[in-house]
Amino acid sequence: MALLSVAGLLVLAACSDAPEGEDKLLARVHQKELRLSELAGMFPDNATAEDSSLVIQAFVTRWCKETALQWEAERNLPADLNIDRLVRDYRASLVSTHYEEVLVAMRLDSTISPEQLTAYYEENKSQYLLERPIVRCFLIRVPHPVQDAEELQSLWNNGEISDTMALKNYCERFAEVSLLQPASWYSLDDIASQLPKGVLTAGNINSKREFSLQEGSFRYYFRLLEVKPRLEIAPLSYVEDQARNVILHNRKREVLEQAREEIFDRELRRNNIETFTNE
Length: 279
Description:
The strands form 2 sheets. Strands 3, 4, 5, 6 and 7 form a 5-stranded antiparallel beta sheet that branches. This protein has helices at about 5-15, 50-75, 85-105, 115-125, 150-155, 160-175, 190-195, 235-270, and strands at about 25-30, 30-35, 135-145, 175-180, 185, 210-215, 220-230. Helix 1 crosses helix 2 (about 50-75) and helix 4 crosses helix 8 (about 235-270). The protein is α+β, with helices and mostly antiparallel strands and about 280 residues long. A hairpin with a 2-residue loop joins strand 1 (about 25-30) and strand 2 (about 30-35). It is about 50% helix and about 15% strand. It contains 8 helices and 7 strands; from the N terminus they run H-E-E-H-H-H-E-H-H-E-E-H-E-E-H. It has 3 domains: about 5-75, no CATH class; about 90-125 and about 235-279, no CATH class; about 130-230, Chitinase A, domain 3 (Roll). Keywords: Isomerase. This is Peptidyl-prolyl cis-trans isomerase.
């Protein structure tokens, strides 16, 4: 492999009016060559000579390694490997995939109404069995010693809506973790990971419906609202994102199937499709 001096290359790279004959050879691996023109556009306007030198050296080194590997790979191709067919099939797949993406972007209705979501869930909820328990709960984790501890305890003990808002305001100021949405479902594992190890498990969740404890530099407050065990059907709110993705996937598949049929029927009518299997 022979390389031109970096200084000379930088002069050529900066000269946009250089004649075609000045497209200098940068490297050669067997019969494959790399020329200066292939680096066009790689040099920022404000690049220094040193920056451009590093770009050229790095590109040439990478090109030589990749080209040498390609040469070795081609030399060791199995005799029965039809590389041209593989390339042809891969190109066809890329072209088809790109056009399918265009079709989906144009035709797919991505709006899912609450009624459609509920209808899908009711028809398919047996597919959404819980793999792990989930819970609705309140959870607070605050640094110890607790700021305004009496205020927090009073707010925690009172279930009035006004105090719930005040509790949220307190947590915004002082808590490191606060889960105070009564309608939200959480994986029991996720909740347990916010508490000291072993405090809350699938085996003891029903006996620890409410507690407050201090360990290390934190104090924890937990209140269980509802638990759903493993293998029970998950509530819609817990699997809503999954359900939406499935609905959209099914719509996408329908869009593509319809497009394939339309294209096939059109080309059939135009006599652009012929089959000869019965001859």
